[in-house]
Amino acid sequence: MATSRKSTSIKIGNNRDIPKLSKALCERMLADLEKARRPMLEATKCSLDNAVYNPKVGFLTPGDKKVRSELNVSSVQKLSRAIFFLEILLRNLETGAVNNKRELYYIAKGECKHNKDLKPLDFADQSESDSVVDFITEMLECYREELNVFANDRGGQTYSKNLIVTEHMADNEKAVVDLGSLGTSPFQPKNKPQSFTLKAKKGKLDFCLVVESEGTANTLVSNGFTKRNNCILMGAQGVPSNAVRSWAKTIQDQLKIPIYFFGDLDAYTIQNIYRTLKAGSAASLIRNADFSAPEVRFLGVLPEDIKKYDLADYVVNPKDAAEFRSLKKAQDALKNDPFFKDKKNKGVTHVLNWLIKNKRRCEQQAFFMVDPKDPLMPEKIIIDKIKRGEFL
Amino acid sequence: MASKITSSSTAEYFSKNLQQVGFSSGTKAVLTTLKEAVDNSLDACEDAGILPNISIEINKIGPGTMKNMDTIQVKVIDNGPGIAPDDIIRVYGEYLASSKFGRGRCSRGQQGIGISAATTWGQLTSAKGVNVISKTLKMKKAISGTIEVDIKKNQGNFKNKETIQWDRPHGTSVEFFFDGRLQLQGEGGVLTYLKGTSLVNPHLELKYKINEDEEVFFERLSTEKIKIPEAVPPHPHTLKLGEFLAHAHLFGQSTVATFLKRGFSRISDNTIKLLEKSGMPKGIANRSLPKTSDSDLKKVYSAIQKTELLAPNTRSVLSIGEAALAKSIERLGEIDFFSVVSRKPRICDAKPVVVEVAIARFVSNKGDNDDPVTVLRFANRVPLQFDKASCAIAKAIESVNWKAYGLQQPKRSLPLGPYIIAVSVVSPFIKFKNASKETIDSSDELVEELRLTLMQAGQRLSRYIKKEQRAADLERKLQHIEQFGPILIQCLGRITSAPKARLEKANIGLTKLLGRDTDAAESKLQDAVDKHQKLQERIKIRRGAKD
Question: Fewest Cβ atoms nearer than 10 Å: which of A48, A62, A135, B499?
């Protein structure tokens, strides 16, 4: 890393013509080398210390910090790998081939195997090639999907009796999906850019419920939640993938209905799941505008629900490495995460403080214990909470 | 009916509890016997101002009398001053007959138990006492015979006593036959003991022969005679009330003031005035000690505890010294790096202590990075080889963050790597956990002093490791330039479809650019090599100065 002559740095704008941008970047590097000047690559620093929370936009945006890599003996390996990988990705874009990161790791290994000159670049494990792909996306300020690098689909299974999704395909075809006609199958957004138009079949939808646990989401649907309520119900399946995040944003922006998040009451859920869904993540600062739904509200489980519904909760065991790490991360978040430091989110910050102080946790499934004989009790509580405005 | 109460002799007690003094297994029996004999030889030589020559022979001569045991012969011959005829029988045949008991000197032996216990073990397992030959300078002929312990009476029996011609002006030879198991390597191994002893005794000339193996000879590395500091009276803050009263009862005819001034260190006339201010009854100082009641003595004791006294004198402590350690560490094997630290004497738990540390890396095991380091522990220059985990030294090593000095270290464990960490604690009052002197009790103050010394040695080690790492890092960078530069140009050329001429020009530019880095890298590398050489030369000079 170095910070010297700005004149040689290559700035990438918001123009997303990736092949053109990449070629310009390589052209600048080559020109610098011809003049025996050190080329420098610059990328936005994607980490919490460069995250800014603007309550007006509602998601984490990048600050001014940049990561600069100047060509020298220390960085020559990193830069060679980056340009080598860029060549592979440009080839994919040209041919329309797509890959996930694991496949790219093996493609890179194959290239190194078949060309002995490239042997020094060989990758010992996937984390090495992943970091190169991430560096390229940060350098070009683009999504990895724009480089035809896709993640596996995860989460986002969506149910509704009153939602029609129209997908606009690349070949100008349209695919219209009536979620009410899918029977027991859900609609699932893909982990790649998709263009959707959403509308209610009749009137206006009342709300969208995002449930942390995929299993609980399925149970609610099986018990008739979407039949009785004019809503959309989506399973997040843990930490929301890009697909879940952009799908939630699409629902928020196009349908303009309230979105509620229902999940566990613990530090991990609030920090890693709810905050990512609502405001994006530090690792994806340059993409949060498209991958966050700032209008999402935290429906529960809330600390007061434990008392109100007499829910079973658990003591967080500080000797359990994962739970201890989670509490430690929560403490760090309160100090360093701009999302939790902003007064707009004081409700959720208060819950995080409560969790650290009381060292207790309560799972979303605890609503099933309120009346064990009534399978609809969780639904009743959720609807009741929405009606009473018991959310953050 | 109440059972009859009997009393036992000291010898009877120890003969039934030999496990308490280092004879709890066959392996320990061999090591303890050898250790006691060598300790006695070294102590005797040092007391007499003689540079020690010790010759050791250990043989497995057949099956033992007990199950899974062998009959072991251990023979130790020294050039010490020899033992006067009247004393021989007491040294080897009587418990607690010691010239060293409680005298406050840094001698290896302290209580006069060990060697008599070795005689007893031989008697119990092979029905043989210890064969002794000894000659002082004044004697024309040496005395030879076998000594056995009369367990009922705690006194020695001298059998086959005769005078013989001996080929040396003075010295002692002892030979034991007993049941044991001969372990050579590892923490409880005989070779580990012998190497350890040679490490902390650079003035020792040692020959040893084990079974049919070739004789090994350790040349004397220092001709400086060990000057054992004079004994000092105990510091009053180190005594418990009972010990204080016993000391007063045994002191004899004198006044209380004389008892305090001569019986303890750091008490003067001025201190006695301070004691009176702290609650010692006035006039008691001039009273006759035997006529002073225990309740008054308790008041004196209480006043002493309330009064601040000077810390104990540290002149009574002996150190091996950095130069001597630096020389003898090569006796352990071929090493490519070492650092030694000898701290000044400090007061720990109101007792003077010297801690010395040597760290070395073996060339032969250089790639061996997954095993814990070898730890050698010493107390008053005697290797400690058992029960490492509960020893203050091991605790101190584990408490240091070795990662900061470039070593790998699992949490709260010994660091890893082909290193040896030798730690010596010398004090006239070492507090052992047991009578067999296997582990040092870990008080907070002692552990802290050990930590500081280890950290100092670690800092020296880290300077060396960092230089090595820098050299390796620079080498790696130089390789990077050669390997990755051409790839970068080729990839850029393909993406931009640049003509060959441009690529050649870029190649020249890249060579120039990285050439600057190469020059700088080579210069840094050379700098690191030069610094390393200077360090080696300094070590050589330091060691040479002591030759």
Answer: B499
